[in-house]
Structures are given as C-alpha cells and as structure tokens.
C-alpha cells in the first residue's frame, strides 16, 4: 500500500463526510485533502486528548518540525501523511505556512479551554474543515479572497460541530461556546454536566442552534457568485453540516450525553445532491425554493 492509498483508506475508515465530498475530485486533489484531514485530526487529537501539557507541546513540536523541514533534503520522511504533504508543498509553497499556522493555533488550545466571544473563537479555534477549505482554495485559485459570507458559513460549520460535541468536550474540560453566550443564560462551565441545570442547558443549546441556522442563510450569497465552480466543494461540506444541524435540533435533548451523527449513505447522498444541483438542495431546505434555477 502506497502513501496515497493509506491516506484514502484511513479517511474512509474515519466515517468523515469529507470522504464523500472528495469522491468527484481528481485523484491528486483527493489524496492531498485526505492527507490534510488526517494531519488535522492528529493535531486536534493531541490537543483534546492529552492530559499532560508538556507531552502535548512536545508532540506538536514534532509535527511542526516535520512541516518546517519538509523541503530539507537531509530530512528523512518516514510518515505517510508527511510524504503526501511534501508533494503538496512542492506544488503550492504557500500551503506550508497555512499548515504551520494551524499547528500554532491549536497549540494555544492546550492551555486555553474557553473563549470570551465569537471573534476570539473564530480567530483562534481552527478546526479541520477550515484548514481543508483553505488548502482546497489554494490548490484551485491562489488569488481567492474570502468574503463575509464565506466567514459566516465557516462559523456555521464550526458551531454545528461545537454544538454536537458540547457534552463530549465538557467531559474533558473544554467549553467552546463563548462565555458571552453563557452569561446570557446565567450559565457557568460547571453547569454543563449538572443534571440540575439541564433545563438551562437545553435553552442554551436551542439558542445556539437557532443562531447557527441564521449563519447558514448566507449560502445564497455564495451560490449567486459568478465563481460558483470555486464554491461547489465548500457548499457540499456546508450542506452535510446543515443536515447534521437539523438532526441536532431534532435530538437536542440528547446532545449532552450522545454523539449524534449522520449515516454514511446520508452523507454521500447529500454531498452528491449538492454538487449535482449547485447547492439547490440546501436552498430548498433553507427557503423552500423548489423552483430555484441558478
């Protein structure tokens, strides 16, 4: 098994929606995005699972060194993910800095487990989807400028994952819903897993779901862009997470204690339909626009 096959196999086994989103891409891009996803998950795992901050810093330093020295001919590459990323950086040198920034931002999260507001959260909390989107845009259009709608949809995807993981994160001492939002409901982090505060927590979760719905409504601004082809991959990702948000809304009483996800077939179907219809499938859900012909 070569390095590309390894990355694709690992991505498929992860049950990530990315696997279905990249099926229609050409082989090289597919392999690269699979490697980026696996890399990002390794970094996130180091931060979220490590109970020893010294060990976490050391592990992140190892990955940072591998990326920094990736073009050094004397550096021996013995990790399949790094091997694929080297091919990427050879073609797109700017990607090296993007990847290092991702490591740096995650390193901050070793010590910082809360955020004051959404501005701070957006600035520091880099999830895998944001990294993947940045790399995808770099591979397809190096001059791409992010719009306000791009940023808001990126925030919607991030918030969908934060809402889904709120109970799991709280159990390891991480609280990603901003403090400013908690204060609105007189909630403290100690209340997240307190059964006596379940009614308040449900109100908070309902409020965050409603706010996230509003962020997804920025999607039409992207679909009406003259450069719609550049957005198909991103809209496909957003469509899957919008469907997940709907599932979370239906099962919000379970969020604190269960990990809610979509079936592999459902992820595949949503991704396929989004690309096939240029995002009309999500517009129908957002606005009931059955005759949208863009």
From TrEMBL:
It comes from the Bacteria. It is an enzyme of class 2 (transferase). Keywords: Transferase. Its EC number is 2.5.1.32. This is Phytoene synthase. The keyword Metal-binding does not apply. InterPro entries: Isoprenoid_synthase_dom_sf, Squ/phyt_synthse. One of its GO terms (molecular function) is transferase activity, transferring alkyl or aryl (other than methyl) groups. It holds the Pfam family SQS_PSY. It comes from Candidatus Kinetoplastidibacterium crithidiae TCC036E.
């Amino acid at each position: 098994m070569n390095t590309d096959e390894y990355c694709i196999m690992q991505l498929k086994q992860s049950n990530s929606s990315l696997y279905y989103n990249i099926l229609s891409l050409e082989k090289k891009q597919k392999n690269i995005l699979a490697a980026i996803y696996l890399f990002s998950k390794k970094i996130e795992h180091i931060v979220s699972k490590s109970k020893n901050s010294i060990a976490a810093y050391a592990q992140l330093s190892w990955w940072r060194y591998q990326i920094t020295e990736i073009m050094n001919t004397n550096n021996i590459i013995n990790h399949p993910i790094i091997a694929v990323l080297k091919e990427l950086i050879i073609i797109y040198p700017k990607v090296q800095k993007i990847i290092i920034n991702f490591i740096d931002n995650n390193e901050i999260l070793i010590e910082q487990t809360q955020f004051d507001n959404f501005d701070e959260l957006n600035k520091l909390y880099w999830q895998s989807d944001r990294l993947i989107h940045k790399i995808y845009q770099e591979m397809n259009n190096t001059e791409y400028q992010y719009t306000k709608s791009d940023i808001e949809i990126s925030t919607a995807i991030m918030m969908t994952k934060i809402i889904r993981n709120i109970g799991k994160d709280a159990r390891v001492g991480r609280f990603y819903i901003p403090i400013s939002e908690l204060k609105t409901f007189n909630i403290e982090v100690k209340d997240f897993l307190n059964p006596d505060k379940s009614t308040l927590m449900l109100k908070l979760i309902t409020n965050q779901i409603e706010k996230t719905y509003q962020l997804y409504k920025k999607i039409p601004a992207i679909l009406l862009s003259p450069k719609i082809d550049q957005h198909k991959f991103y809209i496909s990702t957003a469509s899957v997470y919008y469907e997940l948000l709907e599932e979370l809304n239906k099962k919000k009483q379970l969020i604190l204690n269960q990990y809610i996800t979509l079936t592999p077939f459902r992820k595949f179907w949503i991704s396929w339909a989004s690309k096939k219809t240029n995002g009309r499938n999500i517009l129908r859900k957002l606005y009931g626009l059955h005759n949208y012909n863009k």
